[in-house]
Amino acid sequence: FFNDGQRRIDFVLVYEDESKKETNKKGSNEKQRRKRQAYESNLICDGLHLEATRSVLDDKLVFVKVHAPWEVLCTYAEIMHIKLPLKPNDLKTRSSAFGNFSWFTKVLQVDESIIKPEQEFFTAPFEKNRMNDFYIQDKDTFFNPATRSRIVYFILSRVMYQVRDNVKKFGINKLVSSGIYKAAFPLHDCTFNHKSEDVSCPSERYLLYREWAHPRSIYKKQPLDLIRKYYGEKIGIYFAWLGYYTQMLLLAAVVGVACFLYGYFNQNNCTWSKEVCHPDIGGKIIMCPQCDKHCSFWNLNITCESSKKLCIFDSFGTLVFAVFMGIWVTLFLEFWKRRQAELEYEWDTVELQQEEQPRPEYEAQCTHVVINEITQEQERVPFTTWGKCVRITLCASAVFFWILLIIASVIGIIVYRLSVFIVFSTKLPETLNGTDSIQKYLTPQTATSITASLISFVIIMILNIIYEKVAIMITNFELPRTQTDYENSLTMKMFLFQFVNYYSSCFYIAFFKGKFVGYPGDPVYWLGKYRNEECDPGGCLLELTTQLTIIMGGKAIWNNIQEVLLPWVKNLIGRCRTVSGAEKMTPRWEQDYHLQLMGKLGLFYEYLEMIIQFGFVTLFVASFPLAPLLALVNNILEIRVDAWKMTTQYRRMVPEKAQDIGAWQPIMQGIAILAVVTNAMIIAFT
C-alpha cells in the first residue's frame, strides 16, 4: 500500500535521480528530468495517484508508486470493454467423468482446501451508467489486482510526455527503453516462500510456488484457474496447452518405446545385417573407393556394427509407429481445439477479438483519413493502401533474404561434409580386425555426420540470435493494428525462419543425400570438384537419427541453461550486491525490482521452443521412435521449470487477455499435414 495504508499499489515506476548521478551530462539529465515530470503530471491529470519513495539500499533509486482510484478504474473498464461480474453463476457444473476412479484422480488434483475453487459469475462488459446491475459487494475487491494492473498499464502506455514537430511522444515503453525510467512493473503479492503477514492478502504467489512450481508437485495437475487469475489468460492458456500436449505425449512415448524395444530385441535376426557381418558374404564383397585419389577399395563387413545399430531403427516396428503418429497428431489437434473451446467459455474470452484495442504505436501513426467501405464513416489509418503494399513487399523480401541465407549455410555444411569425408576416408582400413574398437563404430560416414551435426547446431544457434532482432524490426516496421495481430505476424516470421533453420539439414539427409551419386566410374560432382556424398551401405536413416538426437538434445540443454541458469545467476549477483540480511527489511517494490524482466516476447519463445520440438516429434519420428519419450521427459520438467522461473525469478508480468494460442494453431496443423507426408517418404525412400 501507499504510506497511508489505504491506497493499493497498482504499478511501480523506477528511475535514477539525476542529482545523485556522478556524471558530466547535465544537459541530457535535465532533458530526461523534464520529460519525466511532464509524464507524471499528465498521469495525475488523468486521475492516477502517485507517491515517490527513495530506495532503502541505493540512495540514487526512486520508486514511484501508482494507484488508480475507483472513478478511474470504472472509466477505463468501460473504455477497455472489460467483462465484470453481474451475479453468481447458479448453473450446475459438470460431474467428473472418472466416477469409480475418483480416488485415483484425487491424488493428481490440486488440494481444494489449499487452493479454493474460484466462484463463477455471469459477466458483461462494464458500463458506468449501469453500475447498479453489477455484483459490487466491496469497491476495494470488485476489480482484482490483475485487472487493476491491466487498466493502469493501459493508461501508462497512452499518456504523452513530449510533443516535438507536431509528433506526439508517449507511453511507458519508450520511456523505459530510452532510460528515463529504469523499470515499470506490477507487484507480486508476497514473497514466494512465505505467506503474507497481511491477513486480507490471498498470498497467491506463495500458493502457486507451493502447489505448482515446487518439485514435489511434479505429478499433480496444474492450478490453471489460479494461474489465469494471477498472471492473466495469456499465460494461463500457454500452460493449459503445454499440460495437454504433455498428457498426449504419454501415449506416443509408450508406443515409441515398445517399437524401439521390438527393434532392439530383433536386431540379431535382421537378415541383411547378418549378411553384411558374415565373413563369407560381407567379408568377400569388395566396395568401390569412396573418393577419387586417396581412397582404397574396402570390404563391406567393416560396416557390420553400424548395420546392427540400423536394424534397431529400421524395423517393422518403425513402420507401425509412423502410421500411429500420423493418427496421433490429428487426434491431438482435434482434442486440443475442444479443450481450448472449454477454456474460452470458462474464462469468458469468447468475444475477445471485438473488444481488443489498437496498439498505442499504431494509434500514434494514424494520420491519414479514409472512408470505411462497410460503415461509410471516416476513420484514421497510419498509411494509404499503396503505402501498406510497399511495407508488406519490403517485409516479405527481408524474410525471404534471411531464409536464403540459411539455405546458403546448409549448402556450406554440405561442402564441409564432402571435403572432410575425403580426409576420413583416407584413414579407413581395408579389412576389419577386432583390435581397433573405435574404428568398428566410427565409419567415415559416422565421423562426418557427427562433426557436421555439431557445426550445424552451432550455426543454427548463431543465426537464431541475429534473426530474432531482425524479425522484431521487420514487424515493428509493418505496424500491425492490435497486439494479437502483432504477435501473430511476428510468430509467422519467426517460425518460418526457425523451420528452415532447424529442419533443412534433416530434410537434406532424409530425402536428398545419397540419391544423386551416379554410379562407379561416372560419379556426380558438386561445384565441379567435390564428389557427391553417399549414405552408409544400409542407407541414411542412422545418420538422420544422429542428426535429430544432437539437435534435439543440444537444443534442450541450451534452452535450460538460458531459462534456468542465467536468471538464477543474475538474481544471485543482484542479491550479493545488496546488503546481506536486508531482504526482510526491504519493501516489496524494491525486492521485485531486483528480479529479472520477462520481456514482452518471453512467452513467445516458450511457444517457439515447444513447437520446434513438436516438429521433431512428428516430422521425422520414423527415424527416431524415442523422440516422444525424450519430449515427454523434457516437458514434464519444462512445466515446473517455467513455473519456478515465473514465481521466483521474474517480476510479475502485466496480465493480458488471450482467446486461444493464436498463430501457433495453424502452424501445428501445417506441421501435422507435413508429418504424414515426410513419414511416408522416409518409409518409402530413406
UniProtKB/TrEMBL annotation:
One of its GO terms (molecular function) is protein dimerization activity. Residues 1-224 form the Anoctamin dimerisation domain. It is a multi-pass membrane protein. Its main location: membrane. GO terms for cellular component: plasma membrane. One of its GO terms (biological process) is calcium activated phosphatidylcholine scrambling. Keywords: Cell membrane, Glycoprotein, Membrane, Transmembrane, Transmembrane helix. Residues 227-686 form the Anoctamin transmembrane domain. InterPro entries: Anoct_dimer, Anoctamin, Anoctamin_TM. It is found in: Cell membrane; Membrane. The chain crosses the membrane at residues 238-265, 316-336, 399-426, 446-467, 607-627, 663-685. Belongs to the anoctamin family. This is Anoctamin. The lineage of its organism: Eukaryota, Metazoa, Chordata, Craniata, Vertebrata.
